[in-house]
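Posting for a labmate who doesn't have an account.
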Amino acid sequence: MERLLALLRSIDGVRELTRFGKNSVRVSGAKYEGARVFLKKNEIIVIADFSSGANHRAFNLGIFFGGIIIPYIIYGIFFYPKVYRFKKQIRNNLAAML
């Protein structure tokens, strides 16, 4: 896990690392971009995520007050492409380093 943290710190665009449990890390990028990295026995899994819990709560409040369809459309148009691009950057850099 320590080797994975060192590799993640060396990637450009990574602002902050937060450990969750003993096998998962939240990688924060600029603004709201983020990714979760899970370390399994023989593989590393990277999924898209918000950069902080506050951003996640704001999105959930948007769903609560705005209904389901409109916030997801806004997320899909404005936020998801940047979050997905950040996740892809983390995944590709980890694959190249390992």
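Reply:
Got it, the structure tokens are right above this. The longest strand covers residues 33-39.
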